[in-house]
Write a structure and sequence with these properties.
The protein is an alpha/beta fold and 278 residues long. The chain has 7 helices and 8 strands, in the order E-E-E-H-E-H-E-H-H-E-H-E-H-E-H. An 8-stranded mixed β-sheet has the order 1-2-4-3-5-6-7-8, sandwiched between helices. Helix 2 crosses helix 3.
Length: 278
């Protein structure tokens, strides 16, 4: 099983262009017919200032190793011309619709598309799950039909509510989204939301752990399946928590206890029948 590593794909929403890093799993030549494979769309963190590579290619490779395609979405950040919202949601919707055109080319199982967010990227994923999967709310943001819906989400030390600890400055929140409608993802979650895996550390000094708790609480109220793991130690932004994603010399990037999140996530993907049990 080979992977077409880091092919760049440019897409556009209206007059705004954005990029995807694509990691396609090649068909196995020995098979009589190509295998339809699940796909993960990854939204790295970076405080909406940048996208950290620590939560991009290493995560894509982990999904590739499971036999899944992976895309890293270069979603809208804060710049001189744009705020993050609503453009980041429109870009993610555009990406999902683009997959419809690629399903035969790359053998994508469109019924098994997973959104994966880290930190600020989780805010985009959580807002998509809350706003964009509710047909009534979506029409206010995205005029086109959503041709491909994600089947599940993975939220890693997520920003959910921008009023409870991150960002610390209200003016930064206004740069992210001048419309406070986008600030609190949990407030707009409906029964249309998809099953979600959440993990974070209770010692996260950047994004308060209550972010994870309030989103899980809202899912519980709506009877949306979820699994949440709160680890007793560890800093924000762990990514895999191993040397693979360690910024050299930064001990905060390592935590042997929290590395178990990946195995737990794998088990959950099997529980959701996104991956086979064996």
């Amino acid at each position: 099983m080979g992977v077409k590593i880091l092919q760049k794909q440019e897409l556009a929403y209206q007059d705004t262009k954005f990029n995807l890093d694509t990691y396609w799993v090649d068909p196995i030549a020995d098979f009589g017919e190509p295998t339809q494979r699940p796909l993960a769309i990854i939204c790295p963190g970076g405080a909406f200032k940048f996208l950290t590579d620590r939560e991009a290619q290493p995560i894509a490779f982990k999904f590739n190793a499971l036999g899944m395609h992976a895309l890293v979405l270069d979603y809208q950040l804060i710049d001189d011309e744009h705020t993050v919202y609503p453009l980041a949601l429109q870009e993610l919707a555009t990406t999902l619709n683009w997959l419809k055109t690629q399903s035969d080319v790359h053998n994508i199982d469109l019924s098994k598309v997973v959104l994966v967010g880290f930190s600020a990227g989780s805010h985009v994923v959580a807002n998509f799950n809350s706003i964009m999967l509710d047909p009534e709310q979506r029409t206010k943001v995205f005029a086109d039909d959503l041709l491909v819906e994600p089947v599940a989400n993975v939220l890693c030390y997520p920003v959910i509510d921008m009023t409870i600890g991150w960002p610390k400055e209200e003016d930064w929140a206004m740069k992210i989204a001048p419309d406070i409608y986008y600030w609190q993802a949990q407030e707009h979650l409906t029964e249309h939301g998809k099953p979600t895996f959440i993990w974070q550390t209770v010692t996260d000094a950047t994004v308060p752990v209550m972010n994870s708790i309030i989103y899980a609480q809202k899912m519980d109220m709506l009877n949306i399946p979820y699994e949440m793991h709160l680890f007793g130690s560890g800093a924000h932004g762990l990514s895999l928590g191993t040397y693979v994603t360690q910024n050299p010399g930064n001990a905060d990037n390592l935590n042997e206890y929290d590395t178990k999140w990946w195995e737990l996530c794998l088990n959950w993907l099997k529980l959701q029948k996104i991956l086979p049990k064996q």
